[in-house]
Every structure is written in C-alpha cells, then in structure tokens.
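Tutorial, part two.
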Amino acid sequence: MGIRSAVARLRRRGWSRLVVLLGLAGFVVGVYVVVVLGGGMLLGRTESPSLALSVVATAAVALLFAPVQAALERAAATLPGGADIAPYDVLRHFSDSLTDGDPTEDLPARMSRMLAQGTRAEWAQVWLTGGDRLTLAATWPVGADADRGPPVPQPQARDATGEGRRALLVSHGGETLGMLRLQERPGLSLTAVEERLFAGLAAQAGLVLQLVGLRADLDARHDELVARAAELKASRGRLIETQDTERRRLERDIHDGAQQHLVALGVNLRLAQTVATRSPERAARLLAEQADAADDAIEMLTSLAHGMSPQLLAAEGLGPALRSAVLASAIPVSVESDGVGRIPAAVETALYFFCMEAVQNAGKHSGATVVTVRMREERTHWRLDVSDEGAGFDEAQVRAGAGTGLASMCDRLESVGGTVTLRSLPGRGTTVTGVVPRDRAVPSDGAADRAGSHLPLPRRTD
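Running the prediction step on this input gives:
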C-alpha cells in the first residue's frame, strides 16, 4: 500500500512538474520569438539575429522567469490531480509567503493550507495556546469534516484522538505556542519526506504563532480600551447631566428660598431704619425679629451648600472629613483610616462622595445597627470599603435594576479611573468597595466634585 501511494504521488507530481516545465519552455521560446525575430523584422534585419535584441530577450526572461514560474505552479495546482505541492517547495516558499503583506490573522489559515497541500493530508489544523488550553485557529480545507476537539500528542508525532492523525508541538524560545495537526488520507500514510516536511514546518512556525499571539493580545487590549473609553464617555455624560440637574435645582432653591429670605430681611431692615426716629421701641422689636430671619437665611444657605466639597476635606484630608460627616448619620458609623495620608484632591473628593452615598444607602435600606468604613492605602491603589451587617439583598436583582445611588457611586469613581464592586447576601449584610489604582487615576474635570445629589444624612432620632 505504501509503495502504491508513493508511486501515485510521484505520478501526480510528475504531471504537475511537466506542465510547469512545458509552460516555462513556451515562455522562453515566445519571448525570443517576439523580441528577437519580431524586433528584427521591424528593423529590417531578417538574415541574422540582432545581438542587442538577443540581450534584451535574455534580460526579459531573467526578470520574468520567477513570476511566470510561480503563476504556472499555481495554475498546475488547479488541474485534476495537481493539487500537491512538493514538500521541499513548501519549505522553500514558507518564509516568502509570510512576508507578502497579508493580514496577520490570515497566517494560521495559510499555514494549514500549505501543510495540507504539502502532505496530501485529508485536512490540516493550526492550534494556538491561550492560557492553559488549546484553541483552534484554522482548518484547511475550510469546509472539511475535521475533528474540533484538541489534539493529544503522542511519541513519533502521533495524535491519540484518531487513527492516521499526526500532531506536533510548536515552540519558540522555550515557550509552547501551539500545535500543528493533520489527518492522513485513508491508505495514504505520510512518506519520509512528508514527515520531514511536517517537522520542518513545526520548527519554523514558532515565530509565526508568536506573532499571531501578539496580534491577538493587541486586539484584546484594543477592545478593552475601546470598551473602557465607552464606559468613561457614558459616565462623563451622566455626570454632566446630573450636574445640569443639580445646577437648575440650586437656581430654583436659591430663587424661591434663600433669595426671598434675604429680600424680606433687607426690606425689614430698611423699615426699621425708617421708623427708628419716630418709634424707637417698634424699631427695636423689628430689629430683634430680623435676627431670627437672618438665622433662617443662614440655615437655608447652609442646606443648599450641603453636598459641595466640605472645607475639612481640603484642609485635613479624607479621614477627618468622613468622621465629621458621619456624625449626623441615623445609625452609628465607625471610620478606620490608620496609615492613610493625603491623596490627590480629585481622588479624595470622589472617594468622599462615594462613601457618603454608600453610608446613606446603608442607613436607608440595610436595617443594620452599625456601619463600618475602612480605608487602605496600598502600593498600587487606594481602597475604601463600606460594610454593614444588615438584611442584605440579591446582587443579581439589584444590578439588573440598579438605581441612581449605585450608578452615582460608579460614575464618581470612574471619573478618576476607579471601579466599584458590590458584595451582598440576603441576611448576611452588604459591602461596597471602591478601588482607585494609582497608575490609572486621572485628574477630575471638576464635574465629579460639583455634580451629584449628595443629600444631608438622616439625623438620629434618639
């Protein structure tokens, strides 16, 4: 059987080579006929060939010989029985085929095609190593009924997954990058030359698969960056929308509240000045009443200003500002910030309002008796945890219908390159964690500091 298959292959390859040789001979003869004889007739020299025309014909043959040979080989491969490529031709053209400008993602497909054609395999595959598993990168022919399961290499380049299957590891610089695999045709085992071709391709494919892997990593990183840019864009859009809503609310509250208090205070002060000369007693009572009006105006302005970045945060840092802010909480809040120094102002502000939102949510919904705030400063990031031992909830349901509170916390930290994680179980409490990596922290444009709906914490009733 092996002798018959070898003879059959030699016949097919001999036919292909004969077609190529005849084509090259016809090309050479045609060039000389056209250039030397045709040119001589145009010049009126038909007795003897022109030396100059002979030189031109020779130069044309030398320049066009390789392209014509390649075209004839491709044409011979399309003829019946001519699909084989001589094994050593595969290796000879392998490096050239990798530098012809085709996209990197086509390399595995081209490699599997060359392997299948060079060995007359029923099908050939290229597998890539990703993490701890193999991933199928290409199969030739494309529509072949090939095994999609990963190969199991055995000694002597065998594959334990099926009869007549071969598999070889591909490595480069001591790193395993993938595997080449093929299925022999029934009754046509690989010849010794084809086995050497298989081994030679596996030896040369290391750098190629490394290039494919690097391209895949770059594509994954690109997709990650595009997704992160989209998240940041959406986050900034929500912050701007929230900022505009807050600005309009402040304008309305100032106009309808504080402004009216101040206008009334000014009118009454002018009235007291008018009546002071005629009725000092009435003026004194009027002035005394304005003290209460001034207190009302101050309280209104203080309420409007609540939610802006507190002065204590800028003066002393995140820990003291949080301890002062949580004094008004409806439930006790402990703040642990040992070892945390001053951090960038934008990050401090984002973490402050993130914490206030989380504490406020715990006070409203958790039913806990105490809330714990822990801050840590690590070598690579800043971290803030807000934990309670309250009722907890189903994370999946909350994420599916996330309200403005969770979205606001995410937006605040995303504006400085941070992330928010949520852990909760019914009956086991909730922990909200904000992390801002040092190398990804970006300066805030101020929207995170000014925007949002940070409300006064519910005051204790005891």
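Confidence is low (pLDDT under 50) at residues 1-10, 444-462. In part three we will examine how such features are distributed along the chain.
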